[in-house]
Backbone:
């Protein structure tokens, strides 16, 4: 059995990439990090929610040493760096490759994959914080994988090691629910430098959240009339459930890094432009957070 399990090449061994690598390696999959750096393995420490400390050693390969064909690629790089990271691997992908996208937002890989290459999208409500080599799993919640494909043969065995992991034949509604939560909580907490709970507790932020949500629902309803709308309830539930947390966008902004605004509110604005809808609140978030 072990030799039938995939070997993944990983782009982005940050918080989410490390979490995925941890579950995959525990389940017997191989994970090698693609990195222009010393060939020494990446030694990581993962702190689990129950306080246990786990060591994870990931082999590293320079892009120049990649095999001609990549069977399995895991993309977990922060969305603004996707194009740059993918440049090292595109020539090694073809119709026989499988790509698992474990990133926030939507569309970061659009136009970057060869025709026929299989894309599996991941949506997670787990949260990890920290900086290499220390990663703390703040919350181990549900994760969904899916795409325009049936679950791969290894999926069931992976669920034994990856808690609360599910397959969705149609991953889109999960992506959209997460997108709206991120489109509201992330930019507002980043701009006002507050924890997530303020979206629900601060009347001014709540009003802005309502506007962002209404615009997002309008766009999503145009894209799919079956979209239920009323996203504010879900967003406030997420904000309260993660009240003390620093959103990933606030954390990016605090350390002066580029944010993922393009793949979140930027995606909504792009859809709205295509549909001829006005989304001023979302557009304002994009310009405010693009000018770091
Ligand atoms: O996914 C998140 C993020 O910070 O990116 C939320 C749901 C807002 C939790 O912090």
Residues:
């Amino acid at each position: 059995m072990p030799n039938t399990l995939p070997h993944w090449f990983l782009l982005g061994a940050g918080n989410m990439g490390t979490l995925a690598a941890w579950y995959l390696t525990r389940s017997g999959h191989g994970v090698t990090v693609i990195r222009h750096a010393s060939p020494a393995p990446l030694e990581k420490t993962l702190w689990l929610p129950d306080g246990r400390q786990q060591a994870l050693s990931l082999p590293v390969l320079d892009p120049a040493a990649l095999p001609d064909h990549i069977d399995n690629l895991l993309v977990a790089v922060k969305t603004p760096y996707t194009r740059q990271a993918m440049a090292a691997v595109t020539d090694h992908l073809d119709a026989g490759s499988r790509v698992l996208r474990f990133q926030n937002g939507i569309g970061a890989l659009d136009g970057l994959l060869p025709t026929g290459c299989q894309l599996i999208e991941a949506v997670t409500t787990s949260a990890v914080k920290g900086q290499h080599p220390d990663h703390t799993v703040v919350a181990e919640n549900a994760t969904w994988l899916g795409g325009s494909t049936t679950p791969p043969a290894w999926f069931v065995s992976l669920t034994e090691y990856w808690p609360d992991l599910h397959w969705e034949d149609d991953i889109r509604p999960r992506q959209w629910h997460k997108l709206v939560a991120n489109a509201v909580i992330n930019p507002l907490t980043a701009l006002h430098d507050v924890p997530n709970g303020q979206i629900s507790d601060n009347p001014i932020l709540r009003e802005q959240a309502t506007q962002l949500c209404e615009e997002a629902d309008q766009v999503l309803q145009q894209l799919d009339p079956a979209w239920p709308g009323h996203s504010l309830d879900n967003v406030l539930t997420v904000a309260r459930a993660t009240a003390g947390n620093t959103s990933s966008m606030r954390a990016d902004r605090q350390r002066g890094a580029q944010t993922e605004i393009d793949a979140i509110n930027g995606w909504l604005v792009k859809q709205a432009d295509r549909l001829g809808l006005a989304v001023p609140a979302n557009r304002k978030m994009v310009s405010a957070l693009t000018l770091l």
